[in-house]
Design goal:
Elements lengths: L1 E6 L2 E6 L2 E5 L31 H5 L4 E3 L10 H6 L5 E4 L2 H9 L5 E3 L4 E3 L2 E7 L7 H5 L3 E6 L6 E3 L7 H10 L3 E5 L15 H10 L4 E5 L11 H11 L5 E2 L6 E3 L1
Parallel strand pairs: 3-4, 4-5, 5-6, 10-11, 11-12, 12-13
Antiparallel strand pairs: 1-2, 1-14, 2-3, 7-8, 8-9, 9-10
Length: 253
């Protein structure tokens, strides 16, 4: 497999001969208003440019996975540039309806036993924050990729560490885990995605896995920088287990 960090939660996963685009946010830097009541509420999103052209990103994509509909995971540019007949997976019927209303014709709701071109795609739970903020953040999902010719991959999506993440790791024993680790948050309400302590919990639950930390420094409510996370994983002695890619960087396993 190859995992290519594009920007924010947008990644391209090449797996068992197929190419998946996950959570596409493809707009130019500064296109969208900032998330309000956030640490950088004077800065328009995305905060950084794409590392490569949109044509390069979407070339030869076989399927798209949208873990939820927040605009930093499924934006207007993605809706414009992706072929309307492309295979697209959503987390539930409500999201699928909205995506179909945008013109997409081949939308399927992820299940715990979805199969695409021989690749098992297992929908997993996530919690987009803790406590009261969950009501505002809404539903999200992650996905586990399985195939006889590949290591098991767990893309956790926008979730904090909690018991369901532990359960996914216990059940599927993923060898590669992608976590959204920017500690994004509003001025009240706590982390919406993983912070550095959550990443450490993932490591403790899967000490043999390779962990890739994405969803960093690209939208105005980020709270954990790449440099701070890199310092933390060195301090914990887990830098050989946890990678913090720059935008445009990729890894093969």
């Amino acid at each position: 497999m190859n995992i290519h960090q594009i920007r924010n939660a947008t990644i391209v996963v090449e797996y068992a001969g197929k190419k998946f685009l996950v959570d596409p946010m493809l707009a130019e830097k500064g296109t969208y208003p900032p998330f309000p009541n956030a640490p950088r509420d004077d800065q328009y999103n995305p905060l950084v440019d794409l590392p490569t052209s949109i044509d390069t990103i979407i070339k030869d994509i076989d399927a798209v996975i949208v873990t939820h509909l927040h605009y930093d995971h499924w934006d207007e540019v993605a809706k414009e540039v992706l072929p309307k007949d492309i295979k697209l997976f959503s987390q539930n019927e409500e999201d699928a309806t909205e995506i179909r209303n945008a013109g997409f014709q081949n939308v399927e709701v992820l299940q715990e036993d979805t199969t695409f071109e021989g690749i098992q795609l297992v929908k997993t739970k996530g919690e987009h924050g803790r406590g009261e903020i969950l009501k505002l953040a809404g539903l999200v999902c992650g996905v586990v990729f399985k195939h006889d010719s590949e290591k098991t991959l767990y893309v956790a999506g926008d979730t904090v560490w909690y018991d369901a993440v532990q359960e996914v790791i216990d059940t599927h024993n993923p060898e590669v885990i992608v976590v959204n680790a920017g500690d994004n948050h509003f001025n009240e309400g706590g982390s919406l995605v993983m912070n550095k302590d959550d990443v450490y919990e993932v490591y403790k639950a899967a000490p043999e896995a390779k962990i890739i930390a994405v969803h960093m420094e690209a939208v105005n409510h980020w709270g954990l920088s790449r440099e701070e996370l890199k310092s933390f994983i060195i301090e914990k002695g887990i830098s050989s287990n946890v990678s913090v890619p720059d935008d445009g960087e990729s890894y093969s396993f």
